Amino acid sequence: MRTPRRSAERCRRRPSTTPASAALRGVAVALFWLALWQLASLAVGQELLVPSPAVVAATFGELVVTAAFWQITGWSLLRVGLGFLAGVVVGFLAAVLPVRYRTVDLLVSPALRVVRAAPVASFIILVLVWIPVGRLPGFISFLMVVPVVWDAMTTGLRSQSPELLEMATVFRPGWWPTLRRVRLPQLAPFFVAASTTAMGLAWKSGIAAEVIARPPLSIGRQLQDAKIYLETPAVFAWTITAVGLSLLLEALLRRSTRRWRTIQTPPRASVAKGDDDAAL
Asked: Which residue has the higher pLDDT, 75 or 117?
């Protein structure tokens, strides 16, 4: 009969997943979906409805080598990136002030809940009346990011350990050691989760705004034009571009915040050391 101790030892001896095996699994999954896509194209039999992967790849290759492709993707990234950054800052401030002041919470929270619940398309059509088309995608991305960051940071601020805060008050290390050693480590997981979620939402809503508003030099406009002129391979190629950039942005954001994920709440000695550092 297998004992729990032997089972635990066998689990420890089991080799972990290597980068090579993970890469092979990723290639196998990609090949599976490409084969399924090819079968669907053959079953339909019309490139206008479901173009084959080879045709889409050829169209994508023709786009990538042009300077216009990089200008278009660059401007879309700039619009959405600015909206994302502004949304993160405003969302953080919208969480700090209501947690500290009850009146601000009563005024701000209902508006942010309405923004979070309303459909993106309705905001795009409404805001299009007031804002120039070139600024609309960034503003829509901003609107979608603020409620996500606000909700996560509000939860993080309200779930901070009162014992650690009281200990910081007793030792009096100063506002900067308290912020760096007590508050930020507890807020870091909430901020990382909110920012990664908000990045994908900002990109999708920004591209949707570009499709409706059709600003110059935008991925959304290229999607709409390709659809109007029945250039289905171009629709697939620009969609792959949008999806690829979204995955790239999220991967870069996760990589840049990887260190924050490992931040742990500091022990009492760490805060006490902050008191000694302040005294020195």
From this structure: 75
Q: Does pTM top 0.85 for this prediction? A: no
For the chain, percent of residues with pLDDT exceeding 90:
29
Cα–Cα distance, 72 to 84 (Å, whole number): 18
Three-state SS string over the chain comes to CCCHHHHHHHHHHCCCCCHHHHHHHHHHHHHHHHHHHHHHHHHHCCCCCCCCHHHHHHHHHHHHCCHHHHHHHHHHHHHHHHHHHHHHHHHHHHHHHHHHCHHHHHHHHHHHHHHHHCCHHHHHHHHCCCCCCCCHHHHHHHHHHHHHHHHHHHHHHHCCCHHHHHHHHHHCCCHHHHHHHHHHHHHHHHHHHHHHHHHHHHHHHHHHHHHHHCCCCCHHHHHHHHHHCCCHHHHHHHHHHHHHHHHHHHHHHHHHCHHHHCCCCCCHHHHHHHHHHHHC
Cβ atoms of 156 and 186 within 8 Å: the answer is yes
**Spatial separation of the C-alpha atoms in residues 212 and 10, rounded to whole Å:** 57
Own/partner contacts of 104-107, CB < 8 Å, gap of 24 or more, are none
Place of tokens 């870069």: 252
